[in-house]
Structures are given as C-alpha cells and as structure tokens.
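Hey, I was hoping to borrow your eyes for a little while. No rush at all, and the record is pasted right below:
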Amino acid sequence: MTQEPIALYKLIVLYMLNRVDFPLTRAQVETFILDKEYTTYLTLQQAIGELCEDHMIDAKTLGNRTHLTLTEEGRSDLHFFEQNISSAIKAEIDAYLKENSMALRNEVSVTGQYDRTSKGSYQAVLTAKERGEILVELKLTVPDEDSAASFCHHWQQKSQEIYAMLMKELF
C-alpha cells in the first residue's frame, strides 16, 4: 500500500473498534494492520497514541495487555470520515473480524493477573467475562511468582474447561 496520511490509519483503527462489541487488544489491532502491510509499526504506534491523546479511543492496561475501546468522540469522527476508508479495506477488516471473532473475543474476555501480597506471597486473579459481565473470578494465593504466572498463563487455555467443571460440580 502506498504511504497515506496518518489520518487513514487512525480511521482504520476506529473502524475496527466500531465493528466489534468488545474491546480489542492493541496487539490484535497491530497484528491485522501490520500483516496487511498498511503501514509501519512506528507509524501505527503514533496513530494509536494520537487517538488516545485526542480521546477517540480509550486504552486500559490489564495485566500484560492493553485493551482499546472506541469512545463516543471516536464514533462521531468515524461517522463523518468513514467514507475516506476504501471499500476494499473495509471488506478486509470485516472479513478478518468475522473469521476471528471468537478468538479475538476470548482473548480479551479471559484475563489473568497477579500481584505480590503484603505477606510476601502472590495472588493470582483469574477472570472470564462475557459481554462485559463477569462469569467467574477466581482469586488464588500461591507462595511464589512463578506459580502465579503459571496459573495466569494456563487460565488462558483452560478457562472454558474450568468454568464448565465448576458449573457441573456446583449445580
């Protein structure tokens, strides 16, 4: 793709966030845009940074991920300037989101974070959400950081199985 003004990359990010009903991680947005070779990593970082500064998107860091959501200001600007995104780019975005919707949603809906407690142990907080509502949240205290990190890592792959087991055992 030829070098376009940074405004186009901002519109692409806004369009992506507008097409989903859940946050996208910064990495998810970067992966799509960089894989399509729309722009370079540094230019994309500049675009996302400016969108945050201008309150077009919100960026919240949870654990090691930054979740991006569209603000009302961003939605309004997109409404006025969406026609500046080619129909081909829109079609690529729509196809990507449709094809990867479940994986993208699961990645932002299942989180694991840990912190050191005042007594020197670690607490892992494992959460699974659906449509912004918490389905399950587990808090586990473990003796060391490696265990807490391992719990958070495995939660990503096993949360659905664990949730199903809890439902079966508790009902």
Remarks:
- The mean pLDDT is 90.
- The CA atoms of residues 114 and 149 lie 7 Å apart.
